[in-house]
UniProtKB/TrEMBL annotation:
Protein name: DUF2071 domain-containing protein
Pfam families: DUF2071
Organism of origin: Luteolibacter rhizosphaerae
Superkingdom of the source species: Bacteria
Bilayer-crossing regions: none
Length: 251
């Protein structure tokens, strides 16, 4: 199946119809990516979703960041609940209509309430983890240990250039400009969730230490060598829209 057109990749950045249900800020984002054999990833997808390729290549991402001011619309942020850490392992997909988005293999999080709510409300594979983050904006130190694992994933990173927006058609645009997520329920239906935020302002990342352990925790071979792409984003304010089914239940 052909992948999304450039027009579809641009259109998904528009604000979705209807009302958002949550607001949050993502900050100190590190996007690490490796090129991966598509045949390794295709069996992970349900029928109705397809790998989204850039110039014939599939990409696997490891993305640690801070979640801040997470709250339902019209309610204030709550200390102890609205600030936490998240690290996701992700691949890139599109649906039968050509809508590009993200398929999460896992999302580690150190806020137990957020883990349970995200599993139930957004049908995402959140995992309980012990996590901590320190250092400065220019030199972040980030640690993650998933429940049941014995070795800690550690990242040390910061910006290595001036922020700018991604040009359509580039690898950076393909990796960063993602405004849809897909998940599946117990009924086998595919669901789509949309987010809205300004285009990322990204810089090349200096990454003195990184880990592929989260990929191993998900049962996949760990990528070898340095990340082929390492990007940094200071922060972005995000609106979250309700999950909706895009396929009928299997017969």
């Amino acid at each position: 199946m052909n992948g999304p057109t450039l027009a579809q990749r641009l259109a998904i950045r528009g604000r979705p119809a209807g009302r958002s249900v949550m607001k949050q800020r993502w900050s100190r984002l590190l996007f690490l990516h490796w090129r991966v054999d598509p045949d390794l990833l295709r069996p992970l997808l349900p029928a109705g979703l397809h790998l989204d390729l850039h110039e014939g290549a599939a990409w696997l991402g490891v993305v640690p960041f801070l979640m801040e001011r997470v709250r339902p619309v019209l309610l204030p942020a709550v200390p102890g609940l609205s600030w936490f850490l998240e690290l996701n392992v992700r691949i890139y997909v599109h649906d039968d209509a050509g809508v590009p988005g993200v398929w999460f293999l896992s999302l580690d999080c150190n806020q137990p309430v957020a883990v349970e709510l995200a599993r139930r409300l957004f049908l995402l594979p959140y995992q309980h983890a012990r996590m901590r983050c320190g250092g400065t904006l220019a030199d972040t130190r980030y640690h993650c240990l998933r429940r049941g694992e014995s070795e800690e994933a550690v990242f040390e990173y910061g910006p290595a250039g001036e922020p700018r927006t991604a040009e359509p058609g580039t690898l950076e645009f393909f990796l960063l400009e993602r405004y849809a997520l897909f998940s599946t329920g117990r009924n086998g239906r595919i669901y789509q969730g949309l987010v809205h935020h300004p285009p990322y302002r990204w810089a090349e990342a200096k990454c003195d230490r990184w880990s592929t352990l989260p990929v191993k925790w998900d049962g996949l071979p760990e990528p070898q060598g340095k990340p082929e792409s390492a990007l940094w984003v200071e922060q972005v304010d995000v609106q979250i829209f309700p999950l909706r089914a895009i396929t009928a239940p299997p017969a």
